[in-house]
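New here. Your pick:
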Amino acid sequence: MGTRGRPKISEFVEHCISYKVMQWAKHYNITHYKAWFKLVEHKLFPKLIQSIYKNAPRQSLTRSQEFWVQRLIDSKDAQRKFYSKHVKKWVMRRSGIGSLQDWSFKYIKIKGLK
């Protein structure tokens, strides 16, 4: 019995997309949003996205892997939604003040001191 909902995105794909968006935003001096749209037009982008939808069932047209990959490549609305739900969060986690949130140490309170 499978799980319902959005497929899990691997750490590798998440890191690749966020790194390229940040790199292109800095190189071309554009926003992360515009860098994401530039990345979608890259010729190898469909191969990267196919790994996200690798477990999609192939029984019907709207549920197949090819449909979802092609939809993300062709539809601007799908690209906007993918950016706002995923890429924006990944980029913020890896840049600016968001990158400081992953500190692993915590201060322990010493008893007796005020």
Remarks:
- The chain is about 55% helix and 0% strand.
